[in-house]
């Protein structure tokens, strides 16, 4: 901390907070308190003031810049076009964890869709049952029948994500016990855990995790160090995070220190 920051007037401090949010895409209450040498209460007052002026969007633990792309839900197609090489590498690694005769849960998302594409090419497994709430994943894996059978969850369609959610989306999970669940997210940090943009998707992810013995998180580098609106789970609820070597090294170190096994491909 620059000692001069401790004596900044509120108006100037708030301008600097806004600049930090715009550069980093997210600001944390704890980090700002340390940065400016002020209390977390004062930081929250600053963030609330900036949010009331329309400059920030307040979320748990911090704020996003207004209009930031992470504050708006992207379509499945748009998300799929971002970091495709990373998602393909992650998908290949995650698919390698799947064994013959297993029950696998895959949630809706562009990274988990990359897992399904890798499963199509994984010809050394047989008699696999994939449970999913994602229409694109079902279509991808249709090519593999009868080597891979797809069981759809049912539920209510969300067109932007081509996913099935509550009401009636999670009824199946009380009847099936999976060997492995592979789920994606919009953000993961050691401090705030694993988060997602929309509550309906987060509910389905939590239901899948409860129904599976092994829990795998897949996230490209843009998700590491990012916090989104809705909590999915703590990092300790996962057995493994698969990401890439482009992920923020400091945040990866914090995740590992918090007990999460992180594999970078």
From TrEMBL:
Family annotation (InterPro entries): Carb_Metab_HTH_regulators, DeoR-like_C, DeoR_HTH, NagB/RpiA_transferase-like, WH_DNA-bd_sf
HTH deoR-type domain boundaries: 10-65
Keyword Transcription: yes
Gene Ontology molecular functions: DNA binding; DNA-binding transcription factor activity
The keyword Oxidoreductase is annotated on this UniProt entry: no
Pfam families hit by this protein: DeoRC, HTH_DeoR
UniProt entry keywords in alphabetical sequence: DNA-binding, Transcription, Transcription regulation
SUPFAM superfamilies membership: NagB/RpiA/CoA transferase-like (SSF100950), Winged helix' DNA-binding domain (SSF46785)
Domain of life: Bacteria
Family annotation (PANTHER family): AGA OPERON TRANSCRIPTIONAL REPRESSOR-RELATED, HTH-TYPE TRANSCRIPTIONAL REGULATOR SRLR-RELATED
Protein name: DeoR/GlpR family DNA-binding transcription regulator
Native species: Scrofimicrobium appendicitidis
């Amino acid at each position: 901390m620059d000692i001069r920051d401790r004596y900044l007037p509120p108006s100037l401090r708030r301008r600097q907070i806004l600049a930090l949010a715009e550069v980093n895409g997210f600001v944390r209450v704890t980090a700002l308190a340390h940065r400016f040498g002020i209390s977390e209460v004062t930081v929250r007052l600053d963030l609330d003031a900036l949010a009331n002026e329309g400059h920030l969007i307040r979320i748990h633990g911090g704020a996003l810049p207004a209009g930031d792309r992470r504050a708006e839900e992207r379509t499945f197609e748009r998300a799929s076009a971002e970091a495709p090489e990373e998602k393909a590498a992650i998908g290949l690694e995650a698919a390698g964890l799947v064994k013959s005769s297993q029950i696998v849960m895959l949630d809706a998302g562009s990274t988990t869709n990359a897992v399904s594409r890798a499963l199509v090419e994984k010809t050394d497994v047989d008699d696999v049952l994939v449970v999913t709430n994602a229409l694109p994943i079902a279509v991808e894996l249709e090519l593999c029948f009868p080597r891979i059978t797809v069981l759809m969850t049912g539920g209510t369609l969300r067109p932007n994500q081509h996913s099935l959610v509550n009401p009636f989306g999670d009824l199946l999970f009380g009847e099936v016990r999976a060997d492995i669940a592979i789920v994606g997210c919009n953000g993961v940090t050691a401090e705030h855990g694993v988060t997602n943009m929309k509550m309906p998707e987060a509910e389905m992810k939590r239901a899948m995790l409860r129904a599976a013995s092994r829990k795998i998180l897949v996230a490209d580098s843009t998700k590491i160090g990012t916090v989104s609106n809705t909590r999915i789970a703590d990092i300790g609820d996962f057995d493994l995070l698969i990401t890439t070597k482009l992920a923020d090294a400091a945040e990866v170190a914090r995740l590992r220190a918090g007990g999460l096994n992180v594999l970078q491909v």
